[in-house]
Write a structure and sequence with these properties.
The protein has 466 residues and is α+β, with helices and mostly antiparallel strands. It contains 17 helices and 14 strands.
C-alpha cells in the first residue's frame, strides 16, 4: 500500500510538471514581433527618443529640471554634529552609521571640534566573529545535504563586510571602542573587495572540511582543535590586511578652546565604558515593511555576527509612527541609525532624495507603478545603505517636509557630506530606524515582550542588505 502511494505521488508530480509545461504557450512568433515593431513605428516621436536614449545617460535624460532649487538644506531642528566620515570602497556603512550616532556624544562631552572612532578596530572583530559563526553553523547543519536551502544559503554567504544595528551593538558590547588614532584604516579596510573574496574562498573550503569532520563522529575536542586551526588562518589574513587590534592604547585630545588633556591609557572596553557610558541595549530597531503584519516582533535567523549574539530583531510599524519617534529623538539632540534604499531617486550632485528627482515614466512612456509593498516582494527595493538621521524641518503648522542624513561618503559628496530627503521619500524608501527606547511609547515597547516571528535569512526584505 505504501509503495502504491509513493508511485501515485510521483505520477501526480510528473503530471503537474507536464501540465505546467503545457500552460506555457505564448512563444514569440513572427506575427507578434511584427505587431510590436508596428506599434513602435507608428509614433514618430519614438525616433527622436531612440536617438537620445541610446546615446546618453538615462539618469541625465530623466532628471526633473523643474525640481531644481525646490529643496534647500536648512533645518529647524538638528542634532549637534561635526565632521564627515568616509567609508571609501567598502560596505561598512552600518559600522560608520553606528559609530556616527555615538560620535556627537563624545564631541559634546569633551567639547571637541573633531573626533572619529576607529572603524577598522570593530571591523576586524566583526570579520573574525562572522568566520567563527559560519563554522559553527556549518557544524550545526552538517547532517543536512549541500542542496538544502539553509546550507546553500550558508555557502553562498559565508562572510561579508555588511551588517546592521544588531551586529554593531553586539561587537561594541563585546570588544569596546577605540579612537581612530589607535587603529587607523588600511588599504584593505578602505577597499574590502579582495580581502572579502579571499575570506569567502577560504571559509567555503573550511566549511566543507568541518562538515566532513562533524559527520565522521569524531571527539568534540578534536573538532574544536580543527576549528581553531581554521580560525587561525582567518586571523592571519585579517591581521595582515587590517593590523592587529590593540589591547591597550593612550588617548589625548585638544578641546575647542585649545586646551590639551592629560594622556590616559585605556583598554577598548574601558574606553567605551568611560568615554561613552551608554547601554546599547536601550536602543530599539523599528522597520516599515508593509509586506508583513504591523505591530509584530520579527527576528531574522542567522543574521548576527556572534555565536552568542542576538539575531536581527525589529518591531514592524507603519512609517508615520516611526517618524514620530524620530522627531522626538532629534528634538532630544540624539542621532539615529537610519537605513534605506539610497539609490532610488538620489540626486547625488545636489544632495537630495526626492521621489520627483527623476521621471522615467515620461522618458520611456511606460509607467513604473509598484508601491512599497510590491517592490519589497519582488526584490525591487530593500535596504542598501545606512546613515545617521540628524535633522528634521518642522513647519509652522507642525508638519514635517524634509529630514537630514549624515552620510559616510566623504565631504565632497552630496551637500558637504549630507543628504536632504523629503518626507515623501522617507515614506517610500526608509526601511529601518534605531531609536532610544525613551523616545518610544510604552504600548510599542510592550511588543518587545512577545515571542518574535522567525524569518529566514533569504526573506525579500533582507536580500539587498548592505
Amino acid at each position: 500500500m505504501k509503495k502504491s502511494i509513493t508511485i501515485l505521488s510521483a505520477l501526480v508530480v510528473l503530471l503537474t510538471v507536464q501540465l505546467n509545461a503545457q500552460e506555457l504557450k505564448g512563444s514569440l512568433d513572427q506575427q507578434t514581433i511584427d505587431q510590436l515593431r508596428e506599434s513602435f513605428q507608428q509614433n514618430p516621436e519614438n525616433t527622436a527618443l531612440l536617438n537620445a536614449i541610446s546615446h546618453n545617460d538615462i539618469k541625465k535624460l530623466a532628471i526633473n529640471r523643474g525640481n531644481d532649487g525646490k529643496i534647500n538644506h536648512y533645518f529647524s531642528n538638528r542634532v549637534d554634529v561635526k565632521g564627515i566620515t568616509n567609508q571609501k570602497k567598502s560596505g561598512r556603512c552600518w559600522l560608520y552609521t553606528g559609530l556616527n550616532t555615538l560620535r556627537p556624544m563624545v564631541q559634546e562631552k569633551y567639547a571637541l571640534n573633531e573626533f572619529e572612532f576607529s572603524q577598522t578596530y570593530n571591523f576586524f572583530w566583526d570579520q573574525l566573529e562572522k568566520a567563527n559563526l559560519f563554522l559553527e553553523i556549518a557544524i550545526a547543519t552538517a547532517n543536512l545535504p549541500l542542496d538544502d536551502r539553509k546550507v546553500e544559503w550558508l555557502f553562498k554567504n559565508p562572510i561579508g563586510d555588511g551588517g546592521q544595528w544588531t551586529t554593531f551593538a553586539d561587537i561594541v558590547n563585546k570588544y569596546g571602542l577605540v579612537p581612530a588614532s589607535a587603529m587607523p584604516d588600511t588599504y584593505q579596510s578602505e577597499k574590502t573587495a579582495m580581502m572579502s573574496r579571499l575570506l569567502r574562498r577560504k571559509l567555503r573550503e573550511q566549511g566543507l572540511e568541518i562538515r566532513s569532520i562533524t559527520m565522521s563522529l569524531v571527539h568534540e575536542e578534536f573538532k574544536l582543535e580543527q576549528k581553531n586551526k581554521m580560525l587561525a588562518e582567518i586571523y592571519r589574513i585579517l591581521v595582515l590586511s587590517l593590523g592587529e587590534p590593540p589591547q591597550q592604547f593612550s588617548w589625548q585630545y585638544k578641546d575647542k578652546d585649545g586646551k590639551i588633556s592629560e594622556e590616559i591609557t585605556y583598554s577598548p572596553k574601558q574606553f567605551y565604558d568611560e568615554i561613552i557610558g551608554i547601554d546599547l541595549n536601550d536602543y530599539v530597531m523599528l522597520m516599515d515593511d508593509p509586506a508583513k503584519d504591523y505591530n509584530k516582533l520579527y527576528e531574522v535567523e542567522f543574521d548576527r555576527n556572534l555565536v552568542e549574539g542576538v539575531n536581527w530583531r525589529y518591531i514592524n510599524l507603519p512609517v508615520d509612527e516611526i517618524k514620530a519617534f524620530a522627531k522626538k529623538s532629534i528634538l532630544g539632540n540624539e542621532a539615529m541609525y537610519f537605513s534605506c534604499d539610497v539609490g532610488k531617486q538620489l540626486d547625488s550632485k545636489n544632495g537630495t532624495l526626492d521621489v520627483n528627482n527623476y521621471n522615467y515614466n515620461d522618458l520611456f512612456g511606460v509607467t513604473f507603478g509598484n508601491d512599497k509593498k510590491a517592490r519589497i516582494q519582488t526584490f525591487e527595493s530593500g535596504s542598501t545603505h545606512g546613515m545617521a538621521l540628524v535633522g528634521v524641518n518642522i513647519l509652522p503648522d507642525g508638519t514635517v517636509d524634509k529630514w537630514q542624513l549624515e552620510n559616510s561618503w566623504g565631504a565632497d559628496k552630496g551637500n558637504k557630506g549630507y543628504l536632504t530627503m523629503t518626507d515623501e521619500w522617507f515614506d517610500e524608501y526608509m526601511f529601518r530606524l534605531v531609536v532610544n527606547k525613551k523616545y518610544i511609547d510604552p504600548k510599542t515597547l510592550e511588543i518587545l515582550e512577545n515571542e518574535a516571528i522567525l524569518l529566514p535569512p533569504w526573506d525579500p526584505m533582507f536580500a539587498a542588505e548592505e
